[in-house]
């Protein structure tokens, strides 16, 4: 199709080379929707406390028409800006696919044909308030820059600009009992103190101030001192309250951002795949969080093994089990996670992508479990990071320390550490490659969609003015119409129904007007689930198709619809001939 705006470069706002503020991101989304109304629809799922819209793009011809859909989101965590860029790149690639048939590099043409039948729901920035705080001030924000807790009378750190430069970075205080020492190799680089170090020694805190300061006692730095909700702990599946789960919020989906997603996803059971974009690490994280693979649905696991193979080959990242390799505390899985909600409650082939493989850049060998990369960094590796920042990242991370008088603490130094570009997000120069590879990976997942078809097999005369109609519903897609075996029994995961609207004809049996025809299998099995067995290389039965029929009297046209809320609806027109003269 072509709506007269096939040159997407005219609409491009630079998201593959930089991180967009809210105004520019909004202009990008509106530009697509206004130029291509038959292909792109822009909706707001709600508003944030600071008055920003939670934008959602729907991409596909006739965007109102229900059919299998994939979901992409980014920037659930405020500083993880690259997720927005990759989500926008996937959106642009989906638009381009429909305009001129172009696919991301490496996507097979037949996979593109399958992906072309799929709706793309793209929410590039779940936390626009948080992202704006990061972009404008650099202060640490996990998800959203707000704190509505009533229990705020205890001393705590609050991020803020101490030296008047508009940014809130880090702050160091010289102290003989400090835990950090400046590197001999890289001036300004702070390393964990070791037994033989001579000093001077420092304490490091976020640049900011202490609420309820008693004048001498410095409080511990908390993970969520002044921005308590972590949106990725606020979703309803397996939600647990504080302190059992840090960042949980007062109740499931208490935050407008998470609630908007829950409400949309619940109303759209046609979503079959979910790509949740984070940074950083260069890894895909798959279900389940709560149990080892031996206790997981084995059909689901086979599907994830196929994604794992594509992830390494196409996306360039390994895939790990959330339970086995991404649990911060052994035996304590994360609770209230978005992809857990998508997998367990919405039956989606859900996946986290931690964009940007900084560890590979620094030649850090792969840890097992993978999560140890984030906490087991050595001083030698930090020196390599500082050298890499200077050579390959224009020195964006490590900033000079500047002395300033703090109103509460006296002489301090601020600066030192700006993780926004180079740590939390890739350098601008690396964004195009990351966008391209992850888009290609997700297009192949989109190509797994169930693809039901409906056709007339025969219209046979049984007598004067009486005909028998035989129909067949077939699924030619990789996934079955129920998508995941673990979700097959969910009440919203309904079997396909056939509905006959006889028009001027009359059905011989009223019961034929509506009937359940069941779920249809897909041709895919995942990976290592028996298809390549050395001792049993045979096909399964024809569970991907079902026949049904009905008898009518009279002549004219009959409308037959078949489908469900999971896969959408197909319509077939059947012509019933008039009796011969």
Radius of gyration: 28 Å
For the termini, the CA-CA separation is 45 Å
Q: Determine and state the CATH class of the largest domain.
A: Alpha Beta
Q: Which architecture of the largest domain would the CATH scheme give at its second level?
A: 3-Layer(aba) Sandwich
Largest sheet: 8 strands, mixed
CATH fold annotation of the largest domain: Aminopeptidase
| Residue-averaged pLDDT | 93
Q: Strand sequence of the main sheet, in spatial order? A: 1-2-4-3-11-14-12-13
Number of helices: 11
Low-confidence sequence ranges: 1-5
Quick tags:
single chain; 581 residues; alpha+beta; Aminopeptidase; Immunoglobulin-like; 8-stranded mixed sheet; 6-stranded antiparallel sheet; 11 helices; elongated; disordered N terminus
Describe this structure in words.
The chain is of the alpha+beta class and 581 residues long. It is 22% helix and 25% strand. An 8-stranded mixed sheet has the order 1-2-4-3-11-14-12-13, sandwiched between helices. Strands 8-7-9-6-16-15 form a 6-stranded antiparallel sheet, with no helix packed on it. The chain is elongated and about 105 Å long.
